[in-house]
Batch of 3 targets.
Target 1
Amino acid sequence: MTVNLEKGQKVELSKNHPGLDIVCVALGWDVNKGNGKPFDLDAFIVALDEANKPISNGVCYYGAKKVLSESIVHSGDNLTGVGDGDDETVTVTLSKLPANCNKLIIAANIYEAVQRSQNFGQVRSAFVRVYNAANKEEFLKYDLGEEYSTFQGVVFGELYKHNGEWKFGAISNGFNGTINDCIAMY
């Protein structure tokens, strides 16, 4: 059964689904209004250690599709977001993550947002959903609200380990800049 999350809400994953190992984190969006320039959102995941610091070579995105011994794998870059459903998916094999990985930040930013004068006010129907890769069972879906219109990127949520169990927390923090600017927040 899918849980529809609100900002700040948390869901237990591994505790409620014993044996869960491979999860898919899918992001989707549509363009609300364009300015005549190509509109490209990029999903990415940042792996953090116990001190909430980025793990070396732990950023998975269209330019680094397989990281941390292929424990995190990106589906590839969707340049338009056109069509229904998932636009980009990142698959995470929990058992293959490094022992010091306690959190995965799930985010998206607009490629060349400054140069193209674009922001999340031009995006609609943005969401993240998490499901079991083995049987496609959807655990949760989190729809992004409208309050990010001035931002070029949004941290949707985090997949994190607490007392040995994996959970998902809906965050929705806006940021401006590139993937590197998001990473610098940690």
Target 2
Amino acid sequence: EEMYPVILVVGVNGVGKTTTIGKLAGQYHAQGKRVIIAAADTFRAAAGEQLKEWADRAHAELIGGQEGSDPAAVVYDAVAAAKARHLLCDTAGRLHNKKNLMEELRKMNRVIDREYPEACRETFVVLDAATGQNALQQAREFKEVADITGIILTKMDGTAKGGIAVAVQAEL
């Protein structure tokens, strides 16, 4: 029986989380998998529209909240709709407001654990390859509140600093 993953995508603002989700959704669609995307970044004004564009390209269903709505409520709705589909959850990336962000991530995780305990869980931290050592610090901070299972490096075309993935993997 196929396992349907629930993938939470975390990372600071501007690293490429939303684009990464769009690309993952496209890959899953190309493999004949059904995909649902949760627009749980309800803070960034254009996040919903950007995800809608990606969801349409990947023939994925988008579950979105209104701007300013509760991200955990979006995840709740998405989990309810996602049985037998791959679920990709976009999240807001505000590390400067760490306490709120971290509480929000915990809440989303609790919703998934409670509503879909049998799900195959993944939490990917997205890091911008060009940030170098700072990426390691970002990964550490997300590791404090989320069970990070993978790293996605973005913007590799503009840098030779991809080695940070080795440092992050070695430490975390």
Target 3
Amino acid sequence: MAEKQQKREQILTAAEKLLSQNGHGTKISDIAREAGVFDSNIYHYFKNKEDLMFSVVEERNRQSVDDLKLQLQGIRDPISKISKLIWWQLYRHDTQKEFSSIVLFQCRSRAGFYTHQAYEQFSNIRKIHDAIIDEGIASGVFLPGINKAGVWSIIFGLTDLEAIMSLSLQETENAHTDLEGIMDLILPMMTNPEP
């Protein structure tokens, strides 16, 4: 069992590297060669190249969501939690550039991505976000009628934009350095002015 899991991980790592460099034009045979397996091994684990690409995202997100949950442990106030969530997303784009490139420039433009299991991992991040907002509303820190979907769209729109500026335009070396600017933009929309 461990050998099968190791082989699957080799394929995912090779696919992540090559798909981020060459895009969807990457051939299965190139991925197999990079992973040190036969082409047929890839089809043992994945239906096709698109399923492989989405599975890269699914696996990396699964690992990252566990990391996010750990990083949020011990943080008591909702503003610090939302700040940590945003920082985590920006830092993830900075440190997992291959992953970010695949998600931003390849997966999101494919309809199949939104029905694949990989997209489920994004909903797990959304649940964490919504729980932070609910906690902030309950404690009176965030506005009672705050639109959670709107806040989610703003936060992840901004973090994605920062990543795109960093990845393709190289406007900034690190996206996470813009955390303060994002917080300055969103907090007035979210926080309750009443004590």
